[in-house]
Amino acid sequence: MDTMDGTRARKVLKYLRQTIPGKIPRSSVLALEKLPAKVLSTLHAGSDRREITEDPQLRNWLAANPVPLAKASVQEPLFRGTLFFVQITFTFNQPNQLPFSMSAADIQTAVTYATLAVGPIQRYAWQYGPNSVQVSPNILAFNANLQGNTFTDDDVQGWVDSIVQANNLTNACVVILHDSVTANSPTNTDGSGNTLGYHSITGDGHPYCFCRVFAQNLTVADKKWTVCWHPEPRNSRDDCRSEGKLAQPRGLRRVLWQLQQRPV
Fold this sequence. Notes:
This protein has 264 residues and is of the alpha/beta class. It has 8 helices and 9 strands. Strands 1, 2, 3, 4, 6, 8 and 9 form a 7-stranded mixed β-sheet that branches. Strand 8 and strand 9 form a beta hairpin.
């Protein structure tokens, strides 16, 4: 399966939610959120609008108000802060469904990897400007209660704000790893399919990363490619790459790198 980072798609959706006028039917706007991440991430390229929406009013608006191109330069100060990994325990309002969480050992492996990776990434990001990032050795705990077996990015943002407030975090980025293969693991409907993960910022201004995991008993080397933290091939491209810049990393490593640019 062709996988991708979902950050660009999340940014496009955020832009559309903020700019599409109220005269456009709400049902048409909601339908955009169901488009594949690959389609959303390339709306700026002039996609066939008939494949994007059946609403002629929305098609006309998109034609007159094209999605802006991704910026190759940094528009704001780069990230200066600490990554905090969180172990989320999901509880369900359904009979006979037990709570679910990733193991502390697997999350600790991610903490170890991030601690090793942030140094090179920080040095790389200096070509865009001053930055700093540390990794907290302490794994935070959080309980999330679900009505069903799915959740959305809006739910994730609410959890992030609660985590920041409950732990009195400052200059923090919350990192959530999510098991995407275990049978009783819930699904993030805004971060599933071929999306490996994404980063964003909540309405309250708190940065966060959502990274999918595809196995248990993780290792830093991860020779079976079960976690999205491997280097990206040299010939690949993404929405932040620009001519003259170094090839960018992928997955968790890329999420950490892109975080240095502060999501918009």
